[in-house]
Amino acid sequence: MTACSRCGKVSKVELRYNGLSLCGRCFVAFFERRVRRTIGENHMIHPGDKVAVALSGGKDSVVLLHLLHKFNEMHDRSVKLLALTIDQGLNGEEQNLKNAKEVSEARGVEHFIFSFREEFGHTVDELAALKPGLCNCGVFRRNLLNRKARALGADKLATGHNLDDEAESALMNFMSGNLVRMARGDGIVVNTKFVRRIKPLRRSPEEEVALYAGFVFPSMRFSPECPYRGEVIRRNIKRVVDELEGRHPGIRYQILQSSEKLSAALTRDLALKNDVKDCAVCGEPTSGEVCNACTLLREVRQLCHQSP
Taking the model in full, what pTM does it have? Predict the structure, then answer.
């Protein structure tokens, strides 16, 4: 048996990228310190902020709300937290919706639930049935989260993106040559209709988020991943990054750090013009004339009209 690097008890977690072996208690403390440091070093939250937490009920968002509430309690409740859950109408999603309600109620966080059906007229399952590959719930979810967070007066919108997500996005932006997106990063708001997004888990590997959830919420179960999840390129990138991480522990951190350095350099040397305008249909921010959500809705309506 391996001994915990911190206290000498039996180790439960091996972190190959830094050589640490940790027992459950020391791992939880290690994980929480890293999240606090991520929030502090990136100036994500300030006293008096109103922070909307995107709470799907999956492991990442449950851990995120739990930690933000815990840290807020440690700092005299100086931040107003509220939880936003999007009911996508996905078969099998019920467990996550139950988790979202449970974790927000247990911490006294005001919980708002909005649905695809009420906002867009269709559930995810219905969208997927209209046309194979049509469903892109991420477009609608992002649109709805931003609109509702803004309507509720939130200063920040916290999402549960982890290190794996961030490393994959960094590589996708690099491969597509999207210099403006790389330069902006998370802290630059180019349109007042955008609620600034913060990602407190961005330095926490997905596997460790799952381990932390297992230690803190041992009886909680989570719904399976959406069966319609697209972005084939992202899946392929994830496969490559996972393989590289297995051979070279810590490479996800290196990718993220390289992305941050590139962002800083681009911010200095690239004139960041405000190329974000208001959608001609709904008025939400977009880089084109019509936002992705309205474009997708238009295709949905055309398909519904064609259906017998």
Answer: 0.90
